């Protein structure tokens, strides 16, 4: 059942005050970096006076702090942008505000969205909504936690290789990664331009459908956006669904396997056919991703040089020293690691050996997905190999941290829509999500399938 509808028709000011009070009373989770209190209350009063109307009139929400939005700095959880006040707003934020929604704050993330635990934030980690000794997931950990804690009914995030789906799984909420190009990225701090997408966190599928219907569509300011194709769909009966065998191995936590298999049985009980399928290129997806994505982000981060905007190092004598010191002090360790990897694979003598080969392998992965979707309506598998891990558990081992993305990066590389939907909990009460994946532009059909299963 929709939670958003509970906010409609009520005092917008009271909705916002309640959300702000919940945010302040849950500060120990460190899910929010800044509140937009003054602007939010002003907009709420305009809604109550009837000056602002729309499908979401008076509904509070939160945006990941790599979205440009008014009322608070846009930091991308980085020292280099700590005091950056944006002169404009992201298209997705503008679309929500045009329907009367009210942004009450900016959510924590891994700095520049580089990470899978929100431990790489320059301002400290976000804690899991169910166990404060565990990670929130990342990079959109703050957005997932504010949704899970019912501070707001929905939040926006960005997903480059799993940054919406993984924290959604760790915090027991719905996380939507749309088809690449479905939602404008204008006004969102870029990570990797060929895989970045904008999506949402909600507590239920009906709300996810509503939010995606509002924020999708072509934007002249983002040349990668697709024509508007999203429209809430009815459930297609007797679907053929492929269970990705490569994701159901002994390396996966037994309780994750158990919850995934239980969800599969629910699909069968609802009249759908589920068969095991193979995705051989999946084992190379992580290697492809950590060549292609660092290459793109190293280029995107070149603009942070201390000259144009953002943090600027003091006490320097040369231009080279300004660049070097600004970037050294402004970026966290993971930013630097990925910049170095990206610069290396793009350098003369290594471009063909690494980057070009990775792009060719990416095409083979896309072809495998396309072949599967000739026979199957959707695919299913776990979101993450484990439930949320403990804070600090993986920070000293970047490879181990990267492996948490192993089941989410394939669809990102292929530009496909994918959802994380709650599938139960571990015996210890930690949430576990299951991942539904579909062909390009099947976003509404995937959500319809998830909605059907949510009611079972």
Strands in their spatial order, largest beta sheet: 1-3-2-4-6-5-10-11-9-7-8
DSSP helix count?
A: 14
Structural class: alpha/beta
Determine the mean pLDDT.
97
Rg over CA atoms: 21 Å
Q: Helix-strand pattern, N to C?
A: HEHEHEHEHEEHEHEHHHHEHHEEH
For the termini, the CA-CA separation is 13 Å
Number of strands: 11
Oligomeric state of this protein:
single chain
- Major sheet details: 11 strands, mixed
Strand content: 5-15%
Coarse shape:
globular
Level of helix content? 25-40%
Secondary structure topology:
Blueprint: H1 12-25, E1 32-35, H2 37-48, E2 60-64, H3 91-98, E3 102-107, H4 141-148, E4 154-159, H5 165-171, E5 174-177, E6 197-202, H6 205-215, E7 240-244, H7 254-269, E8 273-277, H8 282-300, H9 319-330, H10 333-346, H11 351-372, E9 378-382, H12 398-402, H13 409-414, E10 418-425, E11 431-437, H14 443-454
């Amino acid at each position: 059942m929709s939670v958003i509808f509970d906010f409609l028709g009520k005092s917008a000011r009271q909705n916002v005050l309640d959300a702000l009070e919940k945010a302040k009373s849950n500060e120990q989770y460190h899910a929010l970096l800044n509140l937009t209190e003054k602007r939010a209350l002003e907009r709420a009063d305009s809604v109550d006076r009837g000056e602002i109307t729309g499908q979401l009139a008076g509904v509070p929400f939160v945006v990941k702090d790599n979205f440009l939005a008014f009322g608070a700095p846009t930091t991308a959880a980085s020292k280099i942008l700590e005091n950056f006040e944006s002169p404009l707003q992201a298209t997705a934020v503008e679309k929500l505000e045009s329907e009367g929604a009210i942004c009450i704050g900016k959510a924590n993330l891994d700095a520049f969205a580089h990470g899978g635990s929100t431990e790489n934030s320059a301002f400290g980690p976000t804690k899991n909504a169910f166990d404060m000794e565990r990670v929130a997931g990342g990079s959109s950990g703050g957005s997932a936690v504010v949704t899970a804690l019912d501070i707001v009914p929905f939040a926006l995030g960005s997903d480059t290789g799993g940054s919406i789906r993984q924290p959604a799984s760790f915090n027991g909420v719905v996380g939507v990664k749309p088809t690449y190009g479905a939602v404008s990225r204008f006004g969102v701090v870029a990570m990797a331009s060929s895989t970045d997408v904008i999506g949402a966190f909600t507590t239920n599928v009906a709300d996810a459908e509503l939010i995606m219907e509002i924020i999708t569509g072509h934007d002249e300011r983002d040349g990668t956006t697709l024509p508007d194709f999203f429209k809430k769909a009815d459930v297609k009966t007797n679907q053929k669904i492929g269970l990705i065998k490569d994701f159901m191995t002994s390396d996966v936590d037994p309780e994750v396997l158990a919850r995934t298999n239980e969800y599969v049985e629910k699909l069968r009980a609802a009249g759908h056919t589920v068969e095991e399928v193979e995705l051989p290129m999946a084992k190379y997806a992580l290697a492809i991703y950590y060549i292609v994505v660092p290459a793109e982000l190293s280029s995107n981060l070149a603009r942070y040089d201390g000259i144009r905007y953002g943090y600027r190092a003091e006490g320097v004598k040369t231009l080279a020293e300004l660049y070097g010191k600004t970037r050294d002090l402004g970026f966290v360790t993971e930013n630097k690691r990925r910049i170095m990897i990206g610069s290396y694979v793009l350098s003369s003598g290594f471009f063909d050996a690494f980057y070009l080969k990775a792009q060719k392998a990416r095409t083979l992965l896309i072809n495998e997905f396309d072949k599967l979707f000739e026979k199957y309506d959707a695919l299913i598998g776990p979101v993450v190999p484990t439930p949320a891990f403990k804070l600090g558990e993986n920070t000293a081992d970047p490879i181990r941290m990267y492996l948490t993305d192993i089941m989410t990066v394939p669809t990102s590389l292929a530009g496909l829509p994918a959802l994380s939907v709650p599938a139960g909990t571990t015996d210890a009460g930690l949430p576990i999500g299951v991942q539904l994946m579909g062909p390009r532009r099947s976003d509404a059909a995937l959500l319809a399938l998830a909605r059907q299963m949510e009611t079972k």
